[in-house]
Amino acid sequence: MLKLENISAAYGAVQALEGLSIEVPAGGLVCLLGANGAGKSTTLNCISGVVPPSSGSVTFNGERIDGMKVEAVVRRGIAQVPEGREIFPEMSVADNLLLGGWTHRRDRAQLKDDQDRIYSIFPRLKERIQQNAGTLSGGEQQMLMIGRALMARPKILLMDEPSLGLSPVLVEKLFEIIQSLHESGLTILIVEQNAQLALRVSDYGYILENGELAFQGLSKELLQNAEIQKAYLGT
Ligand code: ATP
User: Fold this and answer.
1) Residue 94 burial (10 A CB sphere; 0-12, 13-18, 19+)
2) What angle do CA 41, 72, 36 make, to 5 degrees?
3) Ligand 1 site: residues with CB under 6 angstroms?
4) pLDDT of residue 34
5) 222: region left, alpha or beta (phi > 0 left; psi from -120 to 50 alpha)
6) SS3 181
7) Measured in angstroms, how far is the CA atom of residue 50 from the centroid of ligand 1?
8) The model's pTM
9) Which of 41, 99, 145, 166 has the fewest CB atoms inside 10 Å of its own CB, making it the most exposed?
């Protein structure tokens, strides 16, 4: 479904990615791991159109999307949950969700169905429909970010460090939700610092080091790899 071939990207003199190739099959749950600064967020940003790659190609369902604007990428069914919590703090929970459905704004019935679906996944958000998003707890804001991305009815969801800043209990819960979204057929590419957890739930993993691919393989095999255990899993 999604294919990055030989992607390089730089911020001025900083080379963030060098010849990276990764693939995400339809219905897959793939994780991208690596230390701070390895280039994980840059990879997601090259897919979503936030950062233009300096060379290489990004293909989505057979169409080249590198060089496209963010909105054009979103319209093709790619939604990103950015790192950190970029909600609109002065707006209500409901309005934040509606903004996520912007590309479907003319279809009110669908928007209502989509909102109901989000509230059934995250009942906590339903209890806080009219609350200003800025007053939600960290975990609730993370739920809202995921809900907002789902409102775009994505074919693939790009998630950047969803566990960041959440308590262990919430992280477990969040990953249960990620797994159930995956089981419902959604394709997911997830960037995580928590390599142990990401490899436990995903089918396939890529590990970046200094902007280049260091390892790739079935997640269950990566979990058993002694070198990876030592460097990334703290075991
Ligand atoms: P983290 O886990 O810390 O979020 P990451 O693997 O997501 O790290 P990136 O954010 O992709 O890493 O950064 C890759 C490299 O590019 C880093 O060296 C970083 O300092 C650099 N970089 C990222 N964004 C910018 C920017 N806007 N301007 C300049 N350099 C940047």
Assistant:
1) middle
2) 0
3) 11, 14, 16, 34, 36-42, 193
4) 93
5) alpha
6) helix
7) 13
8) 0.91
9) 99
